[in-house]
Design goal:
- This protein is an alpha/beta fold and about 525 residues long.
- It has two domains: about 300 residues, Alpha/Beta hydrolase fold, catalytic domain (Rossmann fold, 3-Layer(aba) Sandwich), CATH 3.40.50.1820; about 190 residues, Alpha/Beta hydrolase fold, catalytic domain (Rossmann fold, 3-Layer(aba) Sandwich).
- It is about 35% helix and about 15% strand.
- It is built from 18 helices and 14 strands.
- Strands 3-4-6-8-7-9-10-11-12-13-14 form an eleven-stranded mixed β-sheet, with helices on both faces. A three-stranded mixed β-sheet has the order 1-2-5, with no helix packed on it.
- Helix 14 packs across helix 18.
Length: about 525
Amino acid sequence: MHIMFFCRHVAALIFAAAVGLLASAPASANPSVTVDNGTLVGLTSDGVHVFKGVPYATPPTGVRRWRPPEPHEDWHGRRFAMSFAPECPQLPYPEGSFFERGISPSSEDCLYLNVWTTSLDEKARRPVMVWIHGGGLTRGSGASPWYDGAGLAKKGVVLVTFNYRLGAFGYLAHPGLSEESEHGASGNYGTLDQIAVLEWVRDNIARFGGDPGNVTIFGESAGAWSVHQLTASPLAAGLFHKAIGQSGAHAYPIPELRQSRFGLEAHENSGLALEDAAGVDSLAALRGLSADRVLGAFERMDYPTLARPNVDGWVFPEQIATAYREGRQHRVPLILGSNADEGTTLALGRAPESAAAFERSVRQRFGALAEGFLQVYDPSTDHVGAFLASFRDETFTWPMRFWARQAAAAGQEVWLYYFTHEPPGDRQDLLGAYHAAEIRYVFDNVDTGMTASATDEALADAMSDFWVSFAATGAPAADGAPDWPRYRRDREPYLIFGGDIEAAEDLLPDEMALFDEAAARRWEAAPD
């Protein structure tokens, strides 16, 4: 692992050295844009102007580790924006994971964004789409080939992707960090990075032909969690105007900074636990460790519980679900949805060994609801299938429906979808419509990493049209596709994205009713 981190670090140093030479680079015919900090030089390919590795904040290194992002300093001359920046420090995916990929350069100096556009005319005022990558808030970057923005840019939007701090670097809360903060808050640095990106977009995107008054945020998995978070954070007010959440919502409680509730530890304790795992006894010593040492300590912990947003009284004054229940969210139009086989790439290796083992787990977790649970998810003939279906619905299908219900109750316009198409590949029959399967269709990138059929291409064309029209007008539509009925509580309509696109109503009603009750009991465990 240390060799891998060394390789990533060396690659990151090469990137930093390259951008340092840019001010003296010769003039070229490449596209250039002057933003608030200086002039950028990008690339043009097939009519799309691309600017990569654009800094949006000062590197969060040294004393800036675990502090809110600060504006980037100005530069003199021209800065090449032709290569993706290093990704933020992160652990690799486990060997054999569907999402495993090669080694990429990484550095704490990672707060950069990327822009795709077909116009640099400030009068173009094209809708802007800002993509927030997934990865459990512990992995990923804005540079995945799946997120290439050329296809969406050709359909008339300005597309932005970016990196934000992850894992222990992005979400660590600690009593010492809270004491340093003028807000008495800590953690949520990754969310603050996302807000800094939206502020950069507000101030600069017109120079790329975008309309700062028409910004749509969208993301998948932890990116959708982030979208949900931003819709509930008062700090993001006015920075976006529409939102799309793909397979990720905070329908369950998140940790709170200084108190244990809902069976969750006070989040400040996680910082003290990281100290112990790192073998140091102070925040100063923890801050002085190399990124590799922090990652190593993070790996020895139950790190998914560390990489979470928290109710800190500033970024999140209250639980996200509470903000929605009380009508304090940003009331923007929403597209929300999930996939039919979310668990195949996430949870197949955690399936119980037998029907009896599945039943024991259900009875332990759900108590009085277990009998009804085992009727809905009957393990007698296929316990693995029952487990995967219950994982899908508990983790994705029900939370997205919960988000839709809360927003619709507040009068927001909501459109719900269910993605059932099975992308081609060697394990198509096993994986089905897996977690993240829809991304390449949304981006119209189905020729990236798979052999697309005419059906795949048609579905990608339609889905990307729906997303672009939503960003442009606030209502999703696509030529040649069925009308997408707006979500309403009484009939709960949704659109199926499968081999065919069709409207339906009342998705998985027995399963949703079960988790309505289970979630209500969870929230009642610690009433406000």
